[in-house]
Design brief:
heterodimer, A: alpha/beta, Aldehyde Oxidoreductase, domain 4, seven-stranded mixed sheet, 21 helices, 31 strands, 24% strand, B: alpha+beta, Ubiquitin-like (UB roll), DNA polymerase, domain 1, 2 domains, 5 strands, globular
């Protein structure tokens, strides 16, 4: 049986290297001992103890029919741990009940997301869309190899063969061979077979895509067995806590740790470039000691002196100063010239406060640095496996090959866990190096808020010029905000032409038929820690553009829905979701004492239209959102019920950002400290949600966050419909609502 | 000092400073990591356990306060780790990131123990002690209603 023995000791038939460096292995020694709980389809396989499964493979087929598929994405609740293997399995025509999913090794060359310039990075609702072509092509290659082998075995033409799940069929003679049986004798071609796009399955042939299988990790999430990095337990492990300075870039000037050292269980207190680390026998001791530290901080860091309330006027002045050119983002035609010639020009200003991710699992990581410091093993929930490995290697001055990553589930991500410096992972590495023992570093919730990295404060100044036939012919959107991309990911910032795409995305209006457009950024250098946050720039930018369009429509006597339908005259899929949501919400119906508001966005090709119904308690300044209707077309929905779940999730997230959530900053420091004073929505805050998934057989364009940005403008338009007042500053706090009503 | 109590029906004895919160004893000493740390301040419910049958924020309870009491965690919620609520949670595909769900289930179980047929509004009111950042709220309501119906 044996034909090749590899250095790992595993017996394999052969390797096949195909397009884009994809590797496919047929296991012939039945090392398929990986059995995990099997409920509702494929289980998540643990790596076998003998290391016999080469993780540098996208798929392996064992002779017993077990199929191992590598998952290049991380799982933070969005379901791509299931979705990507499901797409591969679909084109393989694999029997899903025999599929086991293994985490892909951190290697951008093999597993990088083509949608993220080849980076292993799970973000931006870009996983299914980014891997869509390679995953399908690879699955189809495996299926083709299975069929070619069966054709040789039976000496029949390839064209006479077809497949059923995990089985090659010769219909003429009724013969069948399972993939496992084929794996026992398979010969693998030197080069991967070429698969033409037209040879991939048509949507009507799908057995798995569009059919809703249970997400593989779900059973572990109802019985307490799901493993997050915070759950990792290692022999001899200590606990770490880190006191960081109030602002980015500061360092300790003086450290008085007398009281901290007196806490029972404290092992070591360490000065770090950015703060003070405490290592203790228990988490509680680490927290108590950290709280007992008395530290003064170097005042030279830039963010000292920054005050978010005062900054609004500064940002506003920059946004409104038309003589000051910004960094262009979206340009079409001649916006300035067309504005001058317009028959009527409208202007308005919108503000969005700093906001915080509030992922449920506070940041944490576990590291075990070797005694000589030349190797390291880490356990973490990161949005980028390769960024984590690189950041750790850099911190220790060792090659990336010397860093072993154990990826866990993430207790929420929302953009917080994908920064290039992976600071919360490096924390445990630095402390483990000090004591030469494994260390679990825990951020308290207060740490997570105070050391947060925020969606920036932004002020938006918008102008729209209409011609004499009521058509919008000129559009200008000036965004003054803290920069994000340069701070979060200097590598992608430099590689991407120094464009701040995380802040500016969504200010482009490519779908709307407006011939002359200019969106530009007025970057505000504040030194505040910033981050992508669910919906990235679409959140603030779509609030501004959609709320402004509603304003323009009202002032100019246009119907807000008809206006969007006209602007989308070249985008029938956009018009379709608008008609869908208008119908399902009975938008035209008058509702005494209440108002309905409409909003539309095209988020990277996913079409989203929403209607909110609100009433307003004018005395208390409270907006009550009663119902929220939303129709979306994300193209093909790989897991339709999960697309609905993600949409519910993004609406709830958007409600918080619209109504209650904000971070304020005084002298550079964050003023909030926990869930309550930040204002995360709870069950009693949530309206009835009505979601209509209007999939079309188009390439999938993402669904993880597409609804978040549509919420605030729909609500602000509903507030106007109910009261005649405009709320233009998120969150719509009671005092802001009351002020708008005057 | 030794603190004696029971966890999921088994007697335990721990030595920890009295102020140590029960959460950290459960997680790091008794290795019952299904109970989660979310806020440390009784604001999110990720740490919810039952103490003598009542739901409690284990992040707030000093371990000394459970002397001679019975603590139940997600690991002990059901004999075979699958009861009507957990089945309903899967049927409605409730969890997303999943981190808050142990606490959600413990809250839901406490609700149904005290009020086997809660109304829609009673569910929303009771469950508002727990935060889910993934916004699985509509599915949690549906799952509880399903568990009530299917038992």
């Amino acid at each position: 049986m044996t034909t090749n023995t590899l250095q790992s000791g595993v017996t394999r038939r052969q390797f096949m290297v195909g397009a884009a460096g994809l590797t496919f292995t047929v296991l012939i020694d039945g090392c398929a001992v990986m059995r995990t709980e099997e409920r509702g389809g494929a289980g998540l396989a643990a790596m076998p103890a003998d290391g016999s499964l080469n993780v540098n493979a996208w798929a392996s087929i064992a002779t017993d029919g077990t199929i191992y598929i590598a998952n290049p994405a991380v799982e933070m609740g969005q379901g791509s741990q299931t979705a990507i293997p499901l797409i591969i399995a679909e084109e393989m025509d694999a029997d899903w009940s025999r599929v086991r999913i293994v985490p892909a090794a951190p290697d951008d060359k093999i597993y990088g997301n083509p949608g993220f310039r080849g980076l292993m990075y799970t973000a931006g609702s870009a996983t299914v869309t980014g891997y869509w072509d390679v995953a399908r092509t690879f699955g189809a290659q495996v299926r083709r190899v299975m069929m070619e082998n069966a054709a040789r075995k039976w000496d029949v033409p390839l064209a006479e063969l077809s497949t059923e799940p995990s089985t090659v069929v010769h219909a003429k003679t009724g013969r069948k061979l399972s993939y496992g049986e084929i794996a026992a004798f398979a010969q693998i071609p030197a080069a991967a077979p070429a698969i033409k796009p037209e040879e991939l399955k048509k949507p009507e042939q799908y057995r798995l895509i569009g059919k809703d299988v249970m997400r593989v990790e779900l059973p572990s999430k109802v019985n307490g067995t799901a493993q997050y990095s915070i759950d990792v337990q290692l022999p001899g492990m200590l606990y770490g806590a880190v006191l960081r300075g109030p602002v980015e870039g500061t360092s300790p000037l003086t450290i008085d740790d007398a009281q901290a050292r007196a806490v029972s269980g404290v092992v070591r207190i360490v000065r770090l470039p950015f703060g003070v680390g405490v290592i203790a026998e228990t988490p509680w001791a680490a927290f108590e000691a950290k709280n007992a530290l008395k530290v003064t901080w170097d005042r030279r860091a830039r963010a000292f002196g920054h005050d978010s309330d005062r900054a609004i006027a500064v940002y506003s002045a920059a946004a409104r100063d038309l003589g000051r050119a910004g960094k262009p983002w979206d340009t079409a035609g001649d916006a300035r010239g067309a504005m001058q010639k317009a028959a009527k020009v409208y202007e308005s200003e919108f503000v969005c406060d700093y906001t915080y991710h509030a992922q449920m699992e506070p940041l944490n990581s576990v590291a075990s640095v070797s005694p000589s410091g030349d190797a390291c093993e880490i356990w973490c929930g990161t949005q980028s496996q390769t960024m984590a490995v690189a950041a750790v290697a850099k911190a220790l001055g060792i090659p990336v090959e010397k860093v072993k990553l154990n990826l866990t589930l993430l207790g929420g991500g929302f953009g917080r866990r994908g920064h290039r410096d992976e600071e919360f992972v490096v924390d445990s590495v630095l402390l483990s190096r000090e004591v030469k023992r494994p260390v679990k570093v825990l951020w308290t919730r207060e740490d997570d808020v105070h050391n947060g990295r925020f969606r920036p404060l932004s002020v938006h100044f918008l102008r729209a010029g209409l011609d004499s036939s009521n058509r919008i012919v000129a559009w200008q959107h000036r965004v003054a905000c803290d920069e994000i991309t340069a701070f979060q990911d200097p590598v992608r910032y430099k590689g991407g032409g120094e464009k701040d795409f995380l802040a500016m995305a969504g200010s482009e209006l490519r779908t709307y038929d407006i011939p002359n457009r200019l969106s530009e950024q007025l970057p505000q250098e504040t030194g505040i820690r910033t981050s992508s946050l669910r919906g990235i720039g679409f959140g603030p930018n779509k609030f501004a553009t959609e709320a402004f369009l509603d304003e323009v429509a009202a002032k100019h006597g246009l119907d807000p829905v008809e206006l969007r339908l006209q602007l989308l005259k070249n985008t029938p899929r956009g018009q379709a979701v608008i008609r869908g949501v208008v119908e399902m919400s009975d938008y035209r119906r008058k509702r005494p004492g209440r108002g309905v508001g409409f909003s539309f966005i095209d988020y990277s090709g996913t079409m989203v239209a929403a209607v909110a119904e609100v009433s307003i308690d004018k005395t208390r300044g409270k907006i009550n959102v009663h119902d929220f209707w939303l129709a979306l077309d994300p193209g093909i929905a790989v897991q339709p019920d999960n697309v609905v779940a993600q949409t519910e999730s993004s609406i709830v997230y958007g409600l918080g950002l619209a109504l209650t959530e904000r971070i304020t900053i005084k002298d550079g420091a964050v003023q909030q400290s926990n869930i309550l004073d930040y204002g995360v929505p709870r069950m009693h805050d949530i309206p009835e949600l009505h979601i209509k998934l209007m999939s079309t057989p188009n390439r999938p364009t993402g669904a993880g966050q597409m609804a978040t940005p549509v919420v605030a403008p729909a609500i602000s338009s509903a507030v106007f419909a109910a009261s005649g007042a405009r709320v233009r500053h998120t969150p719509f706090l009671p005092e802001r609502v009351r002020a708008a009503m005057v | 000092m030794a603190i004696n109590f029971s966890v999921n029906g088994k007697p335990v004895s721990v030595n920890a400073p009295e102020s140590t919160r029960l959460l950290w004893v459960l997680r790091e000493e008794l290795k019952l990591t299904g109970t989660k740390f979310g806020c440390g301040a009784g604001q999110c419910g990720a740490c919810m356990v039952h103490i003598d049958g009542e739901r409690m924020f284990s992040c707030l309870i000093p371990v000394s306060a459970v002397q001679r009491k019975a603590v139940t965690t997600i690991e002990g919620l059901s004999p075979n780790r699958m009861n009507a609520l957990q089945r309903a949670w899967l049927a409605e595909s409730v969890p997303q990131c999943g981190y808050c769900q142990s606490g959600q289930l413990m809250s839901a179980a406490a609700l149904l123990a005290a009020n086997p047929r809660p109304t829609h509004w009673e569910i929303k009111d009771h469950m508002s002690a727990n935060v889910c950042r993934c916004g699985t709220y509509p599915r949690i309501v549906r799952a509880i209603e399903r568990a009530v119906k299917e038992g």
